[in-house]
Predict the 3D structure of the following.
Amino acid sequence: MKAILVVTHGTANLEGVNSSLKPLIKEIKKEFSGDEVRLAFTSKFIINKLFKQSGIKVNNLEEELEALIELGCTEVFILPLHLIPGKEYLDLLDVVESY
């Protein structure tokens, strides 16, 4: 089973989730209907802030990778949305390499 994991810094703005990230995930799911498509945030601060503000839980990269492994995914394609390869992007690379 294959999966696509969209990874972004994240947004604590619910409107940003609804107007940008959800439509992106929906389009990817349309294009790759046979594959699992998931979203992960790299910013723990943003994950916590979004949850406190709206009750929406978005997993971090490690949590999503573990969930995909549990589902039986043997190939995971990482689609990072980071524009600048800063610390969070470099951390993302380290996590992916460890799997």
User: Anything to note?
Assistant: The chain is about 55% helix and 20% strand. The radius of gyration is 13 Å. The CA atoms of residues 9 and 43 lie 5 Å apart. Strands lie at 2-8, 36-41, 75-80.
